[in-house]
Amino acid sequence: MAGRIPLVLLACGSFNPITHQHMRLFELARDHMHQTGLYRVVGGIVSPVGDNYGKQGLVASKHRLAMARLALQSSHWVSVDDWESQQADWTETVPGQLYNKTSAKNDRTHADKYPVISKPLFLYSVQTPCSNAIFSSVRKIATLLKPDKDITQNGDHFTIKTLSTFRNYNMDFVVGQEFEEDLSGVDDRKCMTTITWDGDNLVCVQKGEIEGRGWTHWIEGDELHLELRAAGIVSKQVFKKS
């Protein structure tokens, strides 16, 4: 990979707690950036938020840091940084990026993690799919995944299983009945979810920390269409019947 731009992957978030999916996201991002032929990933940083983030049920940062370090103790390239967790106020992603970029280049504490390099060190922020700051390369990573959907219907009772190498997620609901949806392993949030019929379409509204979150399912021929919405961002998937 001589001649490629050195790159460090940074993930900011609550990590409440860190999950296999968080760690898998680093691997997917690294593989994608290598496949571009432009970058050489030289490290990864997990940066948990501070205690004043304001998320309901947020565990103290010292415990989240300890769990993250235990989870990553066998990793030779992803490490945990505690700077963001020690800030008195919630820190946005960009200041966190600037701190870690400077540290990765100049701070001796990072010398054992990042080799001395002559080219500029670029820091790439790894975001969860429902973040307000979805980066184009993360969307490209998502396109590499080929999830399967298994849907079981009994009247208005549905079970929807989404299966992929990235994560598996099961959803069990009755149309028209609000329920608490636990998104642990997806983006570590909980929300109050209601799914209703709109003609032949299933429309989901998820009330929680993220505004305008939900999805719509509909069938066209032998294809199942899925439109996902969050914070003004829309993405679409199409599944073919097997």
Give an account of the 3D structure.
There is one protein chain. The protein has 242 residues and is of the alpha+beta class. It is built from 4 helices and 13 strands. The chain has 2 domains: 138 residues, Rossmann fold (3-Layer(aba) Sandwich); 93 residues, Calycin beta-barrel core domain (Lipocalin), CATH 2.40.128. Helices cover 21% and strands 38% of the residues. It has a 6-stranded antiparallel sheet with strand order 8-9-10-11-12-13, with no helix packed on it. The longest helix has 16 residues. One of its GO terms (cellular component) is mitochondrion.
Tag the structure with descriptive keywords.
single chain; 242 residues; alpha+beta; Rossmann fold; Lipocalin; 2 domains; 6-stranded antiparallel sheet; 4-stranded parallel sheet; globular
Structural class: alpha+beta
Query: For the residues shown, what is the average pLDDT?
Result: 77
CATH topology of the largest domain: Rossmann fold
Q: Give the overall shape, derived from the CA principal axes.
A: globular
Fraction of residues in helices? 10-25%
CATH architectural grouping of the largest domain:
3-Layer(aba) Sandwich
GO molecular function, one term: nicotinamide-nucleotide adenylyltransferase activity
Family: Belongs to the calycin superfamily. Fatty-acid binding protein (FABP) family.
Domain Cytidyltransferase-like: 10-92
InterPro entries: Calycin, Cyt_trans-like, Euk_NMN_adenylyltrnsfrase, Lipocln_cytosolic_FA-bd_dom, Rossmann-like_a/b/a_fold
